[in-house]
Amino acid sequence: MTAEKSSLKTYLQEKADMVEEGLEQYLHDENIPEPLKEAVRYSLFAGGKRIRPIILLATMEAFGEECRRGLPAACAVEMLHTYSLIHDDLPAMDDDDMRRGKPSNHKVFGEAIAILAGDGLLTHAFETLSELMEMGFPPEKVVCLIRELSQYAGIRGMVGGQAADLLGENRRLSLEELQFIHRHKTGDMIVFCLRAGAILSDVDDKKLEAITRFGHQIGLAFQIHDDILDVVGETEKLGKKAGSDEAKNKSTYPAMIGLDRSREKLSLLIAEANESLRQAGLENSRLAEIADYIITRNH
């Protein structure tokens, strides 16, 4: 690392601030009913780490593209991610009372407004994504990303993973079933962020394939690390009750193969991810640092 290169902590904060500014810009709220506006902002600006949009922006930078041009896509991802968290916490889903150290959206605004806040963010994400045309990207590229986001976030992607997760409660899953859940519920949105950053940067097919593999590897690593944190983390740092997965009788990597083997699997995935980055020509990029950060965070 050169002396001029800022620390990862500084970099993450700078990019998070950029995303915050973008969210304020693209969240047109003048005609939104007040309770709905409050509910949307409550969760969207609840202090999230903005890892997914940062990954998208960092990918563009790594491939030599001006990352600010991708801000509409980054903000769309964060809106969509936030909607999934609001709905995931609902009593009919994971029934979580806390999110990021604060009462869940439905505990503050009621279930009906929480559902509508999630619906609104999901819909508004695609309007925001279309703002890429204002950044000079051709319509066909924007349509490509709209299609990809629909696939990775929809019934074949994140939503499908969430459904499989719900259907897997209170029964013993196979490791393959658990990997399916992790790959789609958590991993697919990370894969989209990497692919979107690469597509906006006009990379060739070989590099796009390599960055996609990296996404699958780091996405699974992200969720395995979450599983580990749920066992060993502290409630105050996690922002939710530690051990909540075990209390709900959910299948997790530690529950199925133990903590030690889960940590070994995590280390293997990070090594494979680093190799994929090398194949994409990005082994010295910020993405490598972000991958390391994912397995050292404590919340």
Question: Could you give a short description of this structure?
Answer:
The chain has helices at residues 8-26, 34-44, 51-62, 71-88, 105-109, 111-129, 139-153, 158-167, 175-200, 205-232, 235-238, 244-247, 253-257, 259-279, 286-294; strands spanning 98-99, 102-103. The protein has 299 residues and is mainly α.
Overview of the structural elements:
It is a single chain. The chain has 299 residues and is mostly helical. The protein is 69% helix and 1% strand. It is built from 15 helices and two strands. It has helices at residues 8-26, 34-44, 51-62, 71-88, 105-109, 111-129, 139-153, 158-167, 175-200, 205-232, 235-238, 244-247, 253-257, 259-279, 286-294; strands at residues 98-99, 102-103. The protein has a two-stranded antiparallel sheet. A hairpin with a 2-residue loop joins strand 1 and strand 2. Helix 2 (34-44) packs across helix 6, helix 7 runs antiparallel to helix 9 (175-200) and helix 8 (158-167) runs antiparallel to helix 9. The radius of gyration is 18 Å and the shape is globular. The chain starts with 7 loop residues before the first helix and ends in a 5-residue tail after the last helix. The mean pLDDT is 91.
